[in-house]
């Protein structure tokens, strides 16, 4: 393989295009598994005898380990080597997918989904950090991040379509088994396209073990508490106590990082302009987006009476809208920057979700669902591309995995937060109406409507937060970085810690 120079365009080479396709395939695989099971949930419940309370753990178990272990996975990629961690994560992910498809009980399926999350927490930060350390020039990096962000947004919509086709076709088990041939292809491509890396023994000798325990424990407990809160109640002593415990662990983690000479998460990374604002924007935005897909899927099947395949086909325009918006956003960012795109995209998505919240019982797809879905998809594609670009601008190569894990941890925590909050809102309102004698379908309809209205408010909040973000045009800034060294396919990226 030939090393690139700052004057050469990596994306102009065949190797660069193949590498970008590989990394985006990894992202697509991990992101789609957060939504592909949603359409299959009714079939899974009937086949494995899930209770209503336990059924949420099929999507939430994945989010729990995915979000909880993301920080550890990102730092492991920086220290142990990104290809090594990417391969390990892909193997874990594929074996978990095989096991989940073979599951004969609810416990076995939930365990497999949690194992999938472990694999994804290794794969995603490793892949994104490879992207940001390889495509270093301004236009190349902006384009690569634009494609990555578009794929991330597209995966949520395609997951519903693929889930519907597979569930009504060969059966819900193929929602998991479909990952296997993709994982095999990914593993083959990794060894052909990504060079190996040396493990820096000096960095590992001083590895921040306490920080890893505190961060992982705090994140796992936080996500678990958010997932369980709708069942046990937000104001119960259990929920309040667990949130307090998670906060104490994360506070202890911050204190440890300040005192440690070789921290798991150097807090200096938060001084990179726009990083924190981008991560918070992602958290709030995904809370609204993921909850919208979850509730709209159940709404179409439970209230409108759609079959799984009809539900999936209904999301095809969303896929098209995300692709169009992602392509347009990649062209806009170098001209106007990320901030106006994030703000506008969040507001557009909020309008789309609000329109979906007014879908009546028995409404037609063309008049009631399609307009809001298209508007929402345009905002979704724009937000994911622009936030991903903003969160990776100015990140030095030795902390690329850490920055990637922070962004994606924000995404997973946001997803868990959204499901927890909006499930509680929808369930509470529905139960209140049922107690007053409202017919079941009308009560479900009203509960879904209220949850979607709040999801729209979350997206409007994301727009306000984005006003505080740095307006980057996607140029690679090397503040406190590696002196501008480009880690192309023929060069060894730095694995030193700060």
Overview of this protein structure:
The chain is an all-alpha fold and 498 residues long. It contains 20 helices and no strands. The protein has helices spanning 14-32, 41-48, 52-55, 57-68, 70-80, 82-101, 106-134, 138-168, 174-177, 179-193, 201-205, 209-232, 237-259, 275-302, 308-313, 316-336, 338-356, 365-392, 400-435, 440-466. The radius of gyration is 22 Å and the shape is globular. The model is unreliable at 1-6 and 475-498 (pLDDT under 50).
Give the rounded overall mean pLDDT.
81
In terms of per-residue confidence, which ranges show pLDDT below 50 for 5 or more consecutive residues? Answer: 1-6, 475-498
Q: Cα distance, first to last residue?
A: 29 Å
Overall form: globular
Q: Which range does the strand content fall in?
A: under 5%
The secondary structure category is mainly alpha
Strand count, sense and barrel status of the largest sheet are:
none
What order do the SSEs take from the amino end to the carboxyl end, as H and E? HHHHHHHHHHHHHHHHHHHH
Count of beta strands: 0
Quaternary organization: single chain
**Number of DSSP helical runs:** 20
Q: Rg to the nearest angstrom? A: 22 Å
At a glance:
By secondary structure, the protein is mostly helical. It has 20 helices and no strands.
